[in-house]
UniProtKB/TrEMBL annotation:
Keyword Glycosyltransferase: yes
Keywords: Glycosyltransferase, Transferase
Family annotation (InterPro entries): WecG_TagA_CpsF
Descriptive protein name: Exopolysaccharide biosynthesis protein, WecB/TagA/CpsF family
PANTHER family per the UniProt record, alphabetical: PTHR34136, UDP-N-ACETYL-D-MANNOSAMINURONIC ACID TRANSFERASE
Molecular function, one GO term: hexosyltransferase activity
Keyword Kinase belongs to the record: no
Pfam families in the record: Glyco_tran_WecG (PF03808)
């Protein structure tokens, strides 16, 4: 089920298009209820999150943008909030970044689930599995494979997922590889909710530190990550964030120009 089908099925009609990508404007508790309902009804739905970084990638990569069109997209971070405020006059109701939302969803879901983990290094995936099992004891967490596999290994990995058929499959391979991999290889035969989770398993394992809570509350986690990994992330944040906002401003101007063009002429 894609974003549009989910909207039709569940009555969530509030979408905000950010650089052409429709993002669900939904409260935290409503998002948890939605995912629980999708699992209960076994409605296959690909899930991802939009932040400034992957919006920039989608803007220049039509294959990735097309893949995202078949995902249910949740808002992640201050960048898309600023974009929503600029384009629609209000930010998203809640920041549903996967690093916080996915563990919270698993804690809140009372019905026992099978959750597959795919991606990161083997050590980090195993450590994340232990952390999740302690966090949400009602669920069964299974490490499928690390994220470093060859095309020749793919059939065996996909077959293992199909045999397990988890309720959720957490795919942690980085953007855009994780979304493209889900799009190309995973369907309703394999799981119910495949979720592209980025660095979640690395964060859960403790190998990549999270920002202090006060920085997260101030929406400055990106600044903390930049300070920790400047060599890897400077282009994403120092170049990418202003570029993203410039593209959003251009989207706003284009919408304004279209509105003027579509306005009926005045009779004088």
């Amino acid at each position: 089920m894609n974003m549009h089908a989910a909207r039709a099925a569940f009555g969530f009609d509030s979408l905000k298009a950010i650089l052409g990508i429709p993002v669900l404007a939904i409260r935290w508790d409503d998002a948890i209820a939605l995912l629980n309902r999708l699992i209960a009804e076994r409605r296959f739905t690909k899930v991802s999150f939009l932040n400034a970084h992957n919006a920039n990638i989608a803007h220049t990569d039509p294959v990735f943008a097309e893949a995202l069109d078949d995902f249910l997209i949740l808002p992640d971070g201050i960048g898309v909030d600023l974009a929503a405020k600029l384009l629609y006059g209000a930010p998203f109701p809640d920041n549903l970044n996967g690093t916080d939302f996915v563990p919270a969803f698993l804690q809140a879901s009372k019905r026992p689930l099978t959750v597959g983990l795919l991606g990161a290094t083997r050590v980090n995936a195993e450590a994340a599995s232990v952390k999740l099992a302690a966090l949400a004891v009602q669920h069964n967490f299974v490490v499928i494979h690390d994220g470093y596999f060859s095309p020749a290994q793919e059939p065996e990995i996909i077959d293992r997922i199909a045999k397990l058929r988890p309720d959720m499959l957490l795919v942690a391979m980085g953007v855009p590889r994780q979304e493209l991999w889900i799009e190309r290889h995973i369907d309703e035969r394999h799981c119910t909710l495949p979720i592209a989770v980025g660095a979640l398993l690395d964060f859960l394992s403790g190998s990549v530190p999270r920002a202090p809570l006060w920085m997260r509350r101030l929406r400055l986690e990106w600044l903390f990550r930049l300070a920790v990994e400047p060599g890897r992330l400077w282009r994403r944040y120092v170049v990418g964030n202003p570029l993203f906002l410039w593209r959003v401003v251009k989207q706003k101007w284009a919408r304004g120009a279209e509105a003027v063009a579509d306005a009926p002429g005045e009779f004088r």
